[in-house]
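Ticket #4471: structure output looks truncated?

Reporter: J.K.
Steps to reproduce: submitted the chain below (107 residues) through the standard prediction queue, then opened the result file.
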Amino acid sequence: VASCVSAAQQRDAMWTSIAAGLLASGAGGVIGVSGRLPDAAGRELLTDFYRHGGAWTPARALALTQRDAIRRGVAVEIWSMLVYLGSAEAPPRAAATAPAPRAGVLP
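Returned output as attached by the reporter:
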């Protein structure tokens, strides 16, 4: 859910974020944002996330995305806002329906 504060919750309350609601509704995993992520940074991070296989191995893809951001000198306040909630592997039905990446083509 690439929207600002989609993974942020109200203090002392469960299931108050958009991401938590999707998990409670049965989603196997959700990529969310815990703060106000600038559009350009969000676009770059999510492009990297899917380039690293986010549709198939989201936890690993997020780790690689964040490492790339660190190497590029992106501030921790930016790259740490992107979070993944759920299973380390994408559910089989999501991986089966996601388009296969093509060399040189971003999703």
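Triage note (M.O.): checked the attachment and the full token line is present. The chain is about 40% helix and 10% strand.
Status: closed, working as intended.
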